């Protein structure tokens, strides 16, 4: 993947400021193009990362019961409007053959996947798929709750509205009782 082009971003932001009728040389915004380029490097750092690399750290532990990490905060950018959306992800999995990963690795997967122009639905399924591909667990459940600035500050303008998406794999697809148990723990 190519590295972020600071010069192109700065030029585009300068043109954007001109296009909205602002003076890009005005004191308050003259450094904005460089600031936006630095911010985009951080916000879109997931474009150059493979989230599955975080799951390569595994441990042998005789545990084949639910592992649940709740309230993983994330920030992302809507690919439709380039406006932020943010919220919490909840990840549960049932290890197979005692293969577990570090809890922080689950948060790193969410962070990597969310740091690119994104859709909430894609974040949810991508996190679930990464766990299935690398850990081969009995089951995975991912629930993502987020507020989208493209809905709250523009368009319909409904601040505080939350979108919830879920992805279930393995035993959680077919076992309604197990799925309900995890969902009750997330609440």
Characterization of this structure:
The protein is an alpha+beta fold and 187 residues long. The protein is built from seven helices and seven strands; from the N terminus they run H-H-E-E-E-E-H-E-H-E-H-E-H-H. Helix 3 packs across helix 4. The protein starts with 5 loop residues before the first helix and ends with a helix. 27% of the residues are buried. The mean pLDDT is 96.
Write the CATH architecture name of the largest domain: 2-Layer Sandwich
- The CATH topology label of the largest domain is GTP Cyclohydrolase I, domain 2
Which secondary-structure class do the elements indicate?
A: alpha+beta
Text of the CATH class of the largest domain: Alpha Beta
- Tell me the series of helices and strands, N- to C-terminal: HHEEEEHEHEHEHH
Instruction: Name the overall outline.
Output: elongated
What count of helical segments does DSSP give? 7
Radius of gyration: 20 Å
Find the count of extended strands (DSSP E, 2+ residues): 7
CATH homologous superfamily annotation of the largest domain: GTP cyclohydrolase I, C-terminal domain/NADPH-dependent 7-cyano-7-deazaguanine reductase, N-terminal domain
Q: Which regions have little confidence, pLDDT < 50, spanning 5+ residues?
A: none
Main sheet strand line-up:
5-2-3-6-7
